[in-house]
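Extended Data, panel c. Modelled sequence:
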Amino acid sequence: MDINYELYKVFYHVAVTLSFSEASKQLFISQSAVSQSIKVLEKKLSQKLFIRSTKRVQLTPEGEILFKHIQPAMNLIKQGEHQLLESGSLGGGQLRIGASDTICRYFLVPYLKQFHQNHPHVHIKVTNQTSIQCAALLEHGQVDCIVVNSPNSALNASHITRTINEFHDVFVANRQYFPLEHQCISLKELQKKPILMLERKSTTSEFLHSVFQRLHLDLVPEIELSSNDLLIDLARIGLGIAFVPDFCIPKDDRDLFELKLKEELPARQIVAAYNEKLPLSQTAKQFMEML
């Protein structure tokens, strides 16, 4: 089927923004030209790709299928352009990294600082998502590499991983509200307490739920959030017992203590990963080697 690449380019921008007007701004063409291009593409494919209304634009099921293929193709083209620009400049280029807020704050910052000092002309772009969502970014070619928690259900055989650190998860609580500092508590006893933890779309939540399931225990958190730092803050004021990675806990915290468990929780890893299906830029290779 002979379809002009520009039509797919217009489709991509409308699908990403879900707005004909915003797509026209990004493409530097008129809104009517965007609308006409979509009509031509729909006619050539004999499929309706968007549902249009006065208030919103959304993809049809057929449009979603096409977008799943167009998105990685567009990202691959962008990546090729960046690598060509990189090869033509001394020490230039771009580094696109995906990582969670927690890993960025408590692990990556020193490495980003060192890499920036060594390669000041490289543009560094960091996208913050959960470790699971970062794997999707890598799969679609939206980032060059990711630094995430493992185990991670979203990593697959095409994602080449390297373990760069190991850590343990801990339960922390306020001494005043939970006088358990000198006790050894089981997870069965702990499940009766108000547990604060990350939301279900996180590797940390997957991990703790799997631990409880292996022991045939129910895990019903009191609060689920998207930030480990906020979980620690809520634990500090006595709202519950927070489940967080050990490297997040401030040293010599006057209010918080780490609970002693009868069961030993397995260690987890921080891994760097890239997609073997996509070419890895020299800049990304250097960053991976540094990690």
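The radius of gyration is 23 Å. This feature is highlighted in the accompanying rendering.
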